[in-house]
Structures are given as structure tokens and as C-alpha cells.
């Protein structure tokens, strides 16, 4: 059975490779960061098993390791590698391959979707091929492996070159590669720590709750602000919906939940355009394009974010209370 743990082990292997290559090149801090992170990915199952057995020491070591990662992160500066290839040669290769370059990228969502839809029906000798609880994530991991093999086939290069390019990208992005993981955890912490209830209390005490327009404006701006803080509108949504959306807009002013939810998420996406915390969208492209300013993508998106927010809020005001 294919389990998500196999994907974690593959990630651990890539991180270990990145760390060892940096160690060979005498980049000590960078090597320590990636090797430690790889150990955390590879040893996660062991830590959980020991904790379930009543041995808290591995979990405590893992916690200290996370603190060490935070201390190492400021020492990871953006790094370009001499083995990244000649820019003119890469351009000529891209022109030669043309639209074939999109094949590996499109395989990732396609294979993931196929596994999510049909993975439950696949079995070998009566044993399910995918674990139902983690089928989508396992499918995504499998899709990434398939895409790597397809990219090597399309470009007619060995698979190890794709792994080397992955290492180069990790070094270019640095600690920001961890932001999606950290922000997912932050959203969960915000939800369970009662931030939504605290926002509801603040809104009740300080907002003119009798004004539907004021409540809607605070909800929309709050979606932008919390998305900027957490880098993810999905993490901001339950906080703002629990604090203002449900108690004030839906229950008190009769807002349409479907319109409020969908357009509120669009307001949150405006915050995604403005924050470096959304590393996947704003920092990774800057590293891939080798921009001089790592925040160049954000600067280019500011006015788009502002204009989209204004139009979205006006449409929400006209539609949500009908």
C-alpha cells in the first residue's frame, strides 16, 4: 500500500542530498539547516511512535530541532549556483521544447485528480493500493514523482539533473520553502486558541454592530489583514467567519452565507497578493526569475490587489444582503 510516509521519506532524501552537497561546498550553516530538516521529515513516524509509547524524549528533541531551525534561518542567504547552467543555453532549450514544457506541470494535477477519483478502486491481490484517509496527498506525491520522470523524458536529461535543479531551487528560496508548512500550523493554532471568539468580543464592544456596512467592511478588511499575516486565505477564513461573519453578518443582518463566503475568500486572496508570507506565489517566482528584488512580484501586484478588493467589496455590498 502506498502511504504518505513514503512521500515524507522522499522529501527527507532530497533535503539530505541538498545538505550533503552544501557540506561538500563548505556552506556549513546551509548544510546544517537542510540536514536537520531532513532528519525531522524522515524521523516523524519514529517520534510519533515513541510518544504514543510514553517516551517523550524524541518529541522534545524534535521541538528543540525546530527552534534550532529558526536560529539557523537568518543565516541562509539567497545563493546562486555556478552549476545552474548557462542562461542562453536554457533559453535555447526552452524554445526547442516549446509547449512540451507544460506536460510535466499538467501531469501533477491530472495524476492527483485520477488518484483522488479512482484510487479507492485500485488494489493488488485484494490489498488497497492507496490508504483512503490520505489518498489525495498520496496521489499528489505520486504525481510529483511521475512529473519528475516525465520532465527528464521531455528534456532528454537524466533524472539526477532534475534532483540537482530541485536542490538549486531550495538553496535559492532558503527558509521560505518552509512557510506553507508553518502557515498551515499557524492557522490551526489560531482556530483552536479562540482567536475568532476574541475578534467577536472586540467587534461587539467597539463596532457599530447595528450597521451592516461597517460589519461587512471590517469582515472584508479582516480577511485581507489575516491573510497577510498567515499567508493563506483558507487559514484566515475560519477566524473571520467565527468572529464577524456568523454572529454579526449572517445571524444579525441576514447576509447570504454562500455569497459572503465566496466573496470573502476573494477579499482574502487580495491579501495573498500583498504578503511575502505567501511564499509559493510571491517569493518562489522571484527566486525562479532571479529578480534583484525578492519582493518584486509583490510590488507588481499591489495595484491589482487594491482594485480587485474595491470591486469585490462593492459587489459584495450590493449582493450579500439581497
TrEMBL record:
The chain crosses the membrane at residues 31-49, 101-124, 130-151, 172-191, 211-237, 258-278, 298-321. InterPro entries: DUF979 (IPR009323). The keyword Transmembrane applies. Keywords: Membrane, Transmembrane, Transmembrane helix. This is 5-oxoproline transporter, DUF979 family subunit. It comes from Dyella halodurans.
